[in-house]
Write a structure and sequence with these properties.
Elements (H helix, E strand, L loop, with lengths): L1 H11 L7 H20 L4 H12 L2 H7 L12 H30 L5 H10 L1 H25 L1 H5 L22 H20 L5 E4 L2 E4 L3 H27 L4 H22 L6 H6 L5 H32 L7
Length: 322
């Protein structure tokens, strides 16, 4: 019955959370009852295949159980998702290519670090372009859904159950809530670090002084790279609703990279000296240094343990299941 669970798993993605389990149990019962009535000693897998195919696309089945009509209907939504994926790749790629060409043309000699810093400085532009592109895509598809839905209905290919994604194994499963929270927090950090540099500041002799000094600012591009990698991995895993060996490995690399940054930050005083002296905060840099060292070591140890435990679980999965 793997095909049935794969089918129900895809339907689940498009159902409201409130009645999701009840709806899935009802669908499972209906399909199994129909399977039982049509079996008569025949191959159950073939009959199940035909039942599922006759039911149609998961997104269409889910739409039958929705009490309200979404802004983008089930007919148009697959094309909307396709457009979002294209934009998610195209917009950052165009910006990176343009910035790289401009960087190479403007600077006669540069090293690898300079090149990566240039990429990191492109992150705010990439975030802005993605937000704008997603908004435009959403508006376009709302208009398409309202005025040109019939054209899309004529273009829908036949549903092929064999192409349904496989059920993710436990080791590859993700928490949707945790990933959404991680994405929001990461975007917030990127925004605060790149657009609100003076957000955390103190008054020293009637002058606003930024809390974090040039030692932190120097490493900001590398911190941007770390956060952007976290954001990218989270978005990919959320869009696929599962992890993969590649995303698990990228996440491990990011964790180690972030740990290195924490240790580098711990080796320097990153709080502006005038703020320390004015507010008698001489103990704070030492406390912060200890916390950063602990965070860096925890990233190394925790990330490595988690990664290698996950790899061992994957290696123990039989090949026929993979």
């Amino acid at each position: 019955m793997e095909l049935l669970e794969r089918y129900l798993g895809q339907i689940k993605k498009h159902l409201p959370i409130k009645d999701r389990e009840d709806t899935l149990n009802e669908l499972r019962s209906l399909i199994l009852e129909e399977l039982d009535s049509k079996s008569n000693g025949s191959n159950n897998e073939d009959i199940l295949y035909e039942i599922i195919k006759s039911n149609g696309y998961p997104i269409e089945v889910a739409a039958r159980y929705r009490s309200n009509e979404p802004l983008i209907s089930s007919v148009v939504r697959p094309y909307f998702y396709m457009g979002i994926k294209i934009v998610s790749v195209l917009a950052p790629s165009v910006i990176l290519i343009v910035r790289t060409i401009g960087f190479v043309n403007e600077i006669d000699s540069f090293n690898l670090i300079d090149f990566f810093l240039n990429i990191a400085y492109s992150i705010p532009s990439i975030i802005n372009s993605l937000i704008f592109a997603y908004g435009v895509m959403f508006i376009i598809f709302i208009l398409i859904n309202r005025y040109a839905r019939e054209e899309f209905e004529n273009e829908i290919p036949d549903f092929e159950p064999k192409n349904l994604p496989k059920i993710p194994l436990k080791v590859y499963k993700i928490s949707i809530f945790e990933h959404i929270f991680e994405i929001l927090v990461t975007v917030l950090f990127l925004y605060l670090l790149n657009y609100k540099e003076g957000l955390i500041s103190f008054e020293v002799n009637d002058v606003s002084v930024q809390l974090l000094n040039e030692n932190f600012t120097r490493l900001l591009p590398l911190l941007n790279i770390s956060l952007f990698l976290t954001l990218s991995v989270s978005i990919v895993q959320l869009s696929r609703r599962s992890k993969s060996i590649l995303t698990i490995t990228l996440n491990y690399i990011q964790t180690i990279f972030f740990g290195i940054l924490l240790i580098i930050l711990a080796s320097d005083v990153i709080i502006t000296n005038s703020i320390i002296m004015e507010n008698n905060l001489t103990a704070i840099p030492n406390v912060l240094r200890v916390l950063l060292y602990i965070g860096g070591i925890a990233a190394f140890v925790g990330g490595s343990i988690s990664y290698f435990i996950t790899l061992s679980k994957i290696k123990n999965i039989p090949e026929n299941i993979l």
